[in-house]
Amino acid sequence: MAKRHWKVRPYVLTGGRTRTRQQLLVHTLVSVPYYDSVFAAGLLPEQRTLYEHARETRSLAELSAFSGISLGVTRVVVDDLASTDRLLVHAETYESPFDRRLLERLLDGLRKLA
Amino acid sequence: MRRILIVGAGQSGLQLALSLQAEGYDVTVMSARTPDEIRRGWVMSTQAMFGNALRTERIYGLDLWQAATPQIQGLQVSLSAPPGERALRIESPIDEPAQSVDQRVKMAAWLELFEERGGTVHYQGVTTSDLDGLTSLGRYDLTVVAAGKGELVSVFDRDPARSPYTTPQRGLAVAYVHGMTPDPLWPVPHVSFNAVPGLGELFVMPCHTLNGNCEILFWEAVPGGPLDLWQERRDPNEHLALTLDLAKQYVPWIYERCANVELTDARATLSGRYTPTVRRPVAQLPSGGIALGMADVVIANDPITGQGSNTAAKCAAAYVEAILAHGDRPFDRAWMEQTFEWFWESTGRHVTGWTNAMLQPLPEHVQGILGAAAGNETVARRFANGFSDPTDFENWFMSPDKAQAYLASVAS
Amino acid sequence: MASASLPDNPTLTSAKIVIAGGFGVGKTTCVAAISEIPPVNTEAWMTAASEPIDRLDPGIDKTTTTVAMDFGRLTISNDLVLYLFGTPGQARFWPMWDDLCRGAVGALVLADSRRLDASFAAINYFEQDSDLPFVVCLNLFDGMLTHHLDDVRQALALSPDVPLITCDARSPSSVAQALMAVVTHTMQRTGHTAPGAFPAR
């Protein structure tokens, strides 16, 4: 009765692509590394709108707000575009949001306004 | 490769996701919390799962905790009548062991397993506008909503014909504790069901949690009654103190085992209440998309029969079967309705009917069954095994004539 | 003030501080005071009950509510930008709060001394449901402190390790100082933990 299913190997499931699985947080930055109008013309409506808006570096939340596309759909489409290298998800420079170097730089920046 | 979107990362959503992934589907999960947040979060349920439900996980190799988790050997029913005195005690083994794995342990690990196996998870609480966009995006062949505790359930219409209640039938209060001593009368791992007629019930069951094995103390309080002190969310230690105080007063045989209990961790309590509700299985979104509801999104029963996670697992198994059987044909509204109806007919209606009946004062024929069970092992065992297979109840438990016929047959 | 566009730099990275608090305590004002772009308002609509609901309850009525959150931005340098996210007013949209708080540096919980109760739910969220370091900040609408901070701390039942400060949400320098208090508090809370011991949330 108890048979174990494992019909497909993991790499097949991702279509062979290696995912960096960069977390897409609301403040994660995305940008288009090189704009390709032919590529843009072939995209589905939501993909195209987000691709166009990402020509300027923006956070996921800004991208969603400016495109008028819900955050959930934005995440899904950005993830797809990022896996094709057409969209750059900016890497997290710091190990965590509590990285001391990051916090010190924020303090320095804020101090100029205080 | 067919693309499936599953919104929600609990028992049903993740079991469906991992099963379909193993079958070669391209599955995306939307989870409101990361594995780490789940582990550091509040307890979510009592999740005692019985043989038939566990089998649906094991087929796909998903029961990763069997060796570590106390194997529940049976069910003990006690009646506190008059309140504080034990009028009746029934103990019965069950045919297959049951087990309860803290969902903080299980869902966090399942999410990680799903990602390790190449699945895509987006960490986001999905709003209605997200669901609208996701179902009309054209990216997914099928969208399943398995987020039974969020706001999203309300896109599914209540089915009044299948929902007899319009208000919560119990206030719920769960506490995970270390340090309970074994039951002196039956020192094997078991689920203990202690009814205080008219006022509520206390459940005690062993569980595997973040820091080892523990016991769960779970009060179900009839709203407005003396046990119903759970309207507000309390400080966890205050919650435990109140749990024990009520045990002392109403089920002293449980309280006697609690001299040295303490909460398992800082987020080991849960309280709340909800209205048992059956919903229609298909949500129609404004932009034209549709989504199929599963488990407690569409069948939310009171936990009095401990069936929530069992129904979730069975629903996942049923949906996997229906999805596989459907091949490459479109997952349209007709298929969704048919899939749910099949699940409702084979499992849902049995669980719902039995659970809703148990919320009421026990009818005379059920009192008769329990009285017989106290002195007859066969009757007791059939009742206890019903928690694994509730479809059996309609054959002997749910109506006076069938109960009478059954009791007569075992007496002769 | 920096331009509305972010630098075109592939190594540009971002950080986030959450601005929380009840309805009408000055979250939008606070974001606007310091943001180099007009606060961006993004709306997500949800079907939701009009009354506060229990976190277990699936039996809620079907009405549609729009939940608005607004956010602003501050360029710290050529390779670092700070986002400020204002939470939706009602605490019951907690999945959205989790999403906003995930990966944040810390949170500034605004309170109005004339109606402290408006921020109870937000404080409860950070005390009970989130592990993000947070600072509570009394927004002095008229620039004057009308209550003793000790009394406010007591009224809010704040634990002693949560800093309580004041600011004028209309003033950029005052908001910058409040945000510095958040960053400093996070440093103190996380200073002695190994990397990864305090995972992103």
UniProtKB/TrEMBL annotation, chain A:
PANTHER family, A to Z: DUF742 DOMAIN-CONTAINING PROTEIN (PTHR36221)
Name of protein: DUF742 domain-containing protein
Organism of provenance: Micromonospora pattaloongensis
Origin organism lineage: Bacteria, Bacillati, Actinomycetota, Actinomycetes, Micromonosporales
Automatic annotation (TrEMBL), chain B:
Pfam families found in the cross-reference section: Smoa_sbd
Top-level taxon in the UniProt lineage: Bacteria
Signal peptide (UniProt feature, chain positions): none
Ranges of residues in domain Styrene monooxygenase StyA putative substrate binding: 148-257
Protein name as it appears in the record: 2-polyprenyl-6-methoxyphenol hydroxylase
Organism for this UniProt entry: Micromonospora pattaloongensis
From TrEMBL, chain C:
Annotated keywords: GTP-binding, Hydrolase, Nucleotide-binding
Lyase recorded as keyword: no
GO molecular function, one term: hydrolase activity
SUPFAM superfamilies, per the entry: P-loop containing nucleoside triphosphate hydrolases
Superkingdom of this protein's organism: Bacteria
Family: Belongs to the GPN-loop GTPase family.
PANTHER family registered for this protein in UniProt: ATP/GTP-BINDING PROTEIN-RELATED, GLIDING MOTILITY PROTEIN MGLA
Protein name: Signal recognition particle receptor subunit beta, a GTPase
